[in-house]
Amino acid sequence: MLKQFADYVTFSLIGLKPGSHGGEALDFFIYDTIKIFLLLTTIIFVVAIIRSSFPPERTKRILSHNREYVGNVMAALLGIVTPFCSCSAVPLFIGFVESGVPLGVTFSFLVSSPMVNEVALIMLWGMFGWKIALIYIGTGLLVAIVSGIVIGRLKMEKYVQDYVWEMQVGQQEIEELTFRDKLVYARGYTRDLLKKIWPYVVIGVGLGAFIHGYVPQDFLAKWAGRDNPFAVPIAVALGVPLYSNAAGVIPIVSALTQKGMAIGTVLAFMMAVTALSLPEAIILSNVLKRRLLLTFFGIVATAIVFVGYLFNIIL
């Protein structure tokens, strides 16, 4: 039904020709924009109700009672339903350290939360189907768990800024919400989140539409296809300096896939964009010394490259 509506607007009302560059690009833009916003509005509301049961204080308490391995798994799973963004990196990191959460466990959370979330799941499911969505979520969790374990084993606590260990955040009371309160929270959270991410969605779909309509398939297949052994690290290197979230990058990912880019390369690019960014590095530099910051980015980037190569082989 949505596809028929997009076709009607593009080819009947506006009068563009089917198969033309402009027609295919606009048709892609209208269809994907409507579909993404419908999916986001519905499922973010549901996930927000679940998320309301995991305020930062409760998350800290859960993680503080778990050590290596179990703690890394718990942290990665909590990252799915716990709000986290670069702007909250400093207070959350300090709170975790002050509450006794091991450093490696904290990093599992830092990797999982921006990379593996409801927005990524919703949009991947809508564009690629449930198999690719679950593959991405599973590999994202694996990257978060393994990265946290490696950082924990390196014993790099001395590379956390000294003031973090000296700061006492203290415990706060956890307010229990009624179901009505959770519905009110979910409505406000959904509205606020859509206000924040709608430009990324529109820009992402617009870039995806341009790629879909105007970029020759042979071009991307040549430079980022299965036959190029350096495609995955190049995709990760390009993704790291970009600042976006799943809402902005997935429409681009969809167009790149349709143009022949290997799925492993696409997933690696998306992981790099969502889990590693220059703004995040700048903010985290306030609590991490340079060696730990570079180690964190290096380990996560290496894990993402490995995932990309693995899925290019098996898919």
UniProtKB/TrEMBL annotation:
Its main location: membrane. Keywords: Cell membrane, Membrane, Transmembrane, Transmembrane helix. It is found in: Cell membrane. Pfam families: ArsP_1. GO terms for cellular component: plasma membrane. The chain crosses the membrane at residues 28-50, 70-97, 132-151, 197-215, 235-256, 262-285, 292-314. It is a multi-pass membrane protein. Belongs to the UPF0718 family. PANTHER family: PERMEASE RV2963-RELATED. This is Permease.
